[in-house]
Amino acid sequence: MNRRAKFASKLALTALTGLCLTTAPSLAQQCGGDFRQFLAGVKQEAVAKGLSANAADKTLAGAQIDRKVLSRDRAQGVFKMTFLDFSKRVISGYRMKNGAANMKKYAAIFQRTEQEYGVPAPVITAFWALETDFGAVQGDFNTVNALATLAHDCRRPELFRPQLIAAIEMVQHGDLDPQRTTGAWAGEIGMVQMLPEDIIKFGKDGNGDGHVRLKQSAEDAILTAGAFIQNLGWRRGEPWLQEVAVPQNLNWAETGLGKTKTGAQWAALGVQPRWGQISGNLPASLLLPQGRKGPAFLAYPNYNIYLEWNQSFIYTTTAAYFATRLAGAPRYTPGNPDPGLNDAQMKQLQTKLQSMGFNVGKIDGILGAGTRAAVQAVQERLGMPADAWPTPALLNRL
Predict the structure, then answer these.
(1) Is 192 in a helix, a strand, or coil?
(2) Is 203 in contact with 225 (CB distance < 8 Å)?
(3) Is the pTM higher than 0.85?
(4) What is the CATH number of domain 5-75+139-189?
(5) Domain-wise residue ranges, the chain
(6) Which residues pair with 260 in a beta bridge?
(7) Is the distance from CB of 137 to CB of 2 less than 8 angstroms?
(8) Which Gene3D superfamilies does the record associate with it (predicted)?
(9) Is the distance from CB of 76 to CB of 12 less than 8 angstroms?
(10) Tens-place pLDDT, residues 355-394
(11) Is 244 helix (H, G, I), strand (E, B) or coil?
């Protein structure tokens, strides 16, 4: 994946008002209208914030509206793969082999990153692999054009205008080339796909050349990712995800994100580790991505940091599991999950749940947090195993 879904979730949650906002009478319009006048307002704001007029001119002089960016923005894809399908697809032998090779190749900077920020090499390496295939696929959208396009567009200027200002600051630092720097359609840059504001705030010079260049320097990308993940709340020396075996007499209604017991309490209920030792004193949620018959994981507090990076449950769980594999865990036991629902069935289920008073959000066929919670509540109400996995049997009962 070559863009930050965390940021994409912000895009989806922002109201699509279509209104042009203003900040102060002295500045040009916040969005819309004549594009060159809009850019003049951005320059004025950047200079007012202490950036040089020269850097603003250098950044904005050749900026253009990119219609492909608008097209991607209007038609954001939806995530409908199951955990087993997605994880098998993205955690390939190639990525496992190259992940191990990169952890060895950059062992010194990974060691420094863990010493300074507490984030282990496998955690960063998994993100590096899933975001850009270790830098091989970083996106081919001109970054300044993408940010200028989305800042000028009146859907979410409050999200993108600050990123365009930050891009000017990167140009001033010599860390972004307005003509040549490319990345994701929504403006993320580099091997771990970070936005300009985050690069300005957390960017680290890992190779000692005096610059932060996440596109070219693996050392910069690794150290910067460590600083960013630490800021999200990473807890040094603690696990993040652990595969477990679960007894079939468990109270499934106690599973899922947001429902925690200590590791010791889960162990007392018969939950057993498939590798390593359960961290008895830490709170943990029992995750069943495809129900009680599929893989099961204990998610410790550090798992929440993955949700800060990317709010897709399937991507998050896959990234966390991938990191455990890079850290030495064996391949998960896939089990034999009950069949799930196809797209039409999922939308039918969401429509029914909504009619029953549950907040499932948009009827989109995606098994998101709201739909999972509603499914679990209905399963419990009907006396079915409340493992939050929607099946044809549940749909038929409704």
Answers:
(1) coil
(2) no
(3) yes
(4) 1.10.8.350
(5) 5-75+139-189, 241-326, 343-397
(6) 285
(7) yes
(8) 1.10.530.10, Bacterial muramidase, PGBD-like superfamily/PGBD
(9) yes
(10) 999 999 889 898 988 999 999 999 999 999 999 999 999 9
(11) strand
